[in-house]
Write a structure and sequence with these properties.
15% strand; 52% helix; alpha+beta; 5 strands; 3-stranded antiparallel beta sheet; 155 residues
Length: 155
């Protein structure tokens, strides 16, 4: 019987895979591949966290425009949808989202929307009303539409 060229080596702090005499690969819990966070257990937690962080970075870059009262809500909506939301939902078609991930996406988006509309939480304005002011759909609805569109493309 011939031994397999790939063998797993276990140590106390990490696991590595021995490929050949000069090459060992370290096994990790999560890593970034082509801008998307992949994890061993296949959930989307790391990807959602990374995308929310990227969405906030884009939002901060565009804050002077997104919060500009001289700019119409329509233009702010278009800018938000094309730059911030698209970066936040990039590659979301393949995520296996859980309710926790959906809540995190909604919470991040509504904080941005409230900021754009200059509305504080204590003002007690419903999220649905703020979305209607800007003319945007719920982020979860967009996520579902993207997944269905991708599903139709794959079939």
């Amino acid at each position: 019987m011939v031994a397999s060229p790939v063998t797993a080596l276990h140590s106390t702090d990490h696991t590595s895979v021995h490929i050949c005499a000069s090459l060992n690969l370290v096994v990790v819990d999560k890593f970034c591949y082509l801008g998307d966070m992949l994890s061993v257990d296949g959930d989307a937690d790391a990807a959602v966290e990374a995308r929310i962080r990227i969405g906030w970075n884009k939002f901060w870059q565009l804050v002077p425009l997104l919060t500009n009262r001289d700019m119409s809500l329509i233009r702010r909506r278009r800018l938000y949808s094309s730059c911030v939301r698209s970066s936040m939902l990039h590659r979301s078609e393949t995520w296996s989202v859980r309710k926790v991930n959906e809540v995190a996406l909604q919470r991040a988006e509504m904080r941005m929307v409230r900021w754009m509309c200059n509305v504080k939480v204590k003002d007690r304005v419903a999220s649905k009303e703020l979305r209607e002011r800007l003319g945007i759909d719920d982020v979860i609805l967009i996520l579902q539409q993207n997944r269905l569109q991708w599903y139709g493309h794959v079939l």
